Amino acid sequence: MKAIVWQGVNKVGVENVPDPTLLLPTDAIVKITSTAICGSDLHLLDGFIPSMEKGDILGHEFMGEVVEVGKAVKKLKVGDRVVVPFNISCGVCDYCVRGMYSACDNSNPNHRMAEALYGATSGGALFGYSHMYGGYAGGQAQYVRVPFADVGPHKIESDLKDEQVLFLTDIFPTGYQAAENCNIIPGRDVVAVFGTGPVGQFAIRSAYMLGAAHVIAIDRVPERLRMAEEAGAQTINYEQEDVLLALREATGGRGPDHVIDAVGMEAHGHGPGAALDKLQQTLKLSFDRITALRWAIQSCAKGGTVSLPGVYGGLVDKLPMGAAFAKGLTWKMGQTHTHRHIYPLLSRIEAGEIDPSFVITHRASLDEAPELYKTFRDKQGGCIKVVLNPWA
Ligand code: NAD
Ligand code: ZN
């Protein structure tokens, strides 16, 4: 079959690889009908996630048709149309039972590798996301092996198009969980969202769904800011304005009640803004690339939440910890527990509350994917979300 493989830092290619086969009685094989490129794939492209090997198949946002099931699979049958969460979870460990699917204790055979690399186990496994996350082949391919097939895949029985349900696999639940973690007081709270990539776009819409009185979105890419405005958000271009001042002005001096960092560790290292510049001079601190997280902490109102769907790896230094402490902030972060959001969010799609396909700007074949990885990484050509058809 055809698949997108990691060929080294900044190198992604299309290769012919063996079709997957059932390895365990709890597996299913899914023929992929739609798959997407995610901001998280950029960390792999950039070489920020250790334990990738040349030839690893990429992709963790995919859906398709079940073509084979192992003997122990009870809920799925050949022909079922399914969306598959990006996390692989056993469904029976203490974490899964408590709905913390991304912290699954049983799906990642390499959790000791994660512990050695990060000083902590990352929890569960992921499709197409390096050996420390289990080394499972991803879904930017024509077929994929899906472990724990009775746990993750969710059947789509309505006639919704792939593009309307595909993002239940990751970015819609991720944006939603980021907003849910803020415990928004409906009709009152103001939420700021740093980063208007696909995750930020769903965080903005989810914040409104959960009752936010006002949402402010921050980025520098005009097409992305425009898409945020279409959802009703006020926007700030951080290259044109001092973000911290603008957020204060927009909130009567209080700051946003909650702040979502949908950027992560690859934030552009632009100036920290006048207030942080001053702090830097006074405390003689040095700043690096985590601008969005610092802005989030500095801008958030007293008692607010800083919610991080954006991915961080390794060490982060020079955080304005004093500001976080003084304001009594709550921090929430981590991988999304995708499984628990699929049914409620699918119900919202079916009810017509949201059509997630709004975020798609590029549709292509697997052969075009290597080029589109770069287009998406560089935010060129108005690119916000790429969906691939493995059979085109
Ligand atoms: P993306 O790269 O398309 O979007 C990031 C956006 O942040 C871009 O529009 C960029 O211009 C903007 N940005 C960069 N620096 C900024 C700054 N200093 N201030 C404000 N905006 C800034 O990626 P995406 O697909 O939207 O994903 C966003 C993050 O969410 C990534 O880190 C990704 O890995 C993560 N993610 C996490 C989970 C999870 O389970 N927690 C799931 C999916 C994605
Ligand atoms: Zn993703």
Automatic annotation (TrEMBL):
SUPFAM superfamilies: GroES-like (SSF50129), NAD(P)-binding Rossmann-fold domains (SSF51735). It comes from the Bacteria. Pfam families: ADH_N (PF08240), ADH_zinc_N (PF00107). Residues 25-151 form the Alcohol dehydrogenase-like N-terminal domain. Its EC number is 1.1.1.-. Keywords: Metal-binding, Oxidoreductase, Zinc. It is an enzyme of class 1 (oxidoreductase). One of its GO terms (molecular function) is oxidoreductase activity. Its cofactor is Zn(2+). Residues 198-265 form the Alcohol dehydrogenase-like C-terminal domain. Belongs to the zinc-containing alcohol dehydrogenase family. PANTHER family: DEHYDROGENASE, ZINC-CONTAINING, PUTATIVE (AFU_ORTHOLOGUE AFUA_2G02810)-RELATED, ZINC-TYPE ALCOHOL DEHYDROGENASE-LIKE. This is Zinc-dependent alcohol dehydrogenase.
